[in-house]
Amino acid sequence: MQYSSALLETLIAELTRLPGLGRKSAQRIAFHLLRSPEADSQRLASAIVELKANVRDCSICGNVTETDPCALCADSRRDATVICVVEQPMDVLALERTGEFHGRYHVLKGALSPVDGIGPDQLRLKELLDRVRGNGVAEVIVATNPTAQGEATALYIARLLQSEPAVKVTRIARGVPMGSDLEFSDQITLARALTGRKEL
Amino acid sequence: MQYSSALLETLIAELTRLPGLGRKSAQRIAFHLLRSPEADSQRLASAIVELKANVRDCSICGNVTETDPCALCADSRRDATVICVVEQPMDVLALERTGEFHGRYHVLKGALSPVDGIGPDQLRLKELLDRVRGNGVAEVIVATNPTAQGEATALYIARLLQSEPAVKVTRIARGVPMGSDLEFSDQITLARALTGRKEL
Description:
The structure is a homodimer.
Chain A: H1 6-16, H2 23-35, H3 38-54, E1 56-57, E2 64-65, H4 71-74, E3 79-86, H5 89-98, E4 103-107, H6 125-132, E5 139-142, H7 148-160, E6 168-171, H8 187-195
Parallel strand pairs in A: 3-4, 3-5, 5-6
Antiparallel strand pairs in A: 1-2
């Protein structure tokens, strides 16, 4: 190891800090950058710096954006009466890719997790209540993750919005994923799929 | 997609160009960078730029280095009579990690592959011959990959060095990898392991 280039080791160490990259993947990327044209490296490096310098949170929905409000909140064609609540900006990307949702989003920036010290005050829940209150919102779709934390957050939101009886609170369906095999589904998912069954 | 930040999309696109990173991993890394302190992003970005600006090839062994000759070629404690030939700088890292080799290296920068237009002239073979010729080299260990290209390159090197009868050319052992299961070994590896058997 001591015989390798120190700069190479530095880059590998920095890459290893990124999620999902182990030592070997980091090494492969570092050597790839070493072999590729300098313009490519420059573009990557400046994309990293530009991102941190210019991307902020939308003051309305909390999603990542360069403009405030974000393009989504500023788009008058999106249905303002339906708000989809998600944990993270990445979830907005995932939902947009389905092309099935035409309302607005609200990013909580996490989920309730007392173990990690994340209570209601650490999430954008007050902002959600303010948005919903007297703004003609008809439905709040809670699309937090189907995990213990996500489910707890969903229940909390349902209770929070009981103060607004005009607003319907719904939860995305949980069941067996498309393309999967019943045989390999875990029992909790399968139980959910059974209780959530619908008439054909 | 069009509703996400353009800078975020740019970074994700740049990350997707790296080996081993698909759209989802790239997304995860981009969001991670967005959440992590600015100093971390800066360090990563400058590590990328510094690497391209300062790392070059050692004029002797061809390994990546910031100094020429590299620390390995400059180290008088390393046995100069044994040269281990590898395809890529990454292979030097892998061999150094074993702690079993105390000689010098020679990086070919690839392997013979007529299909890809890589002939002997595209590899650092002339440099190898020059290094071996009349420099007191006793053994050349060919540690190219156990692939069709690597094997062809090994044979080529053996024939090339026939002009230097004082130099012994050896090839690293190919057989069943440690910790593996015979049952799952492919037949070529198993055949190699049989023909390469040694007395206990």
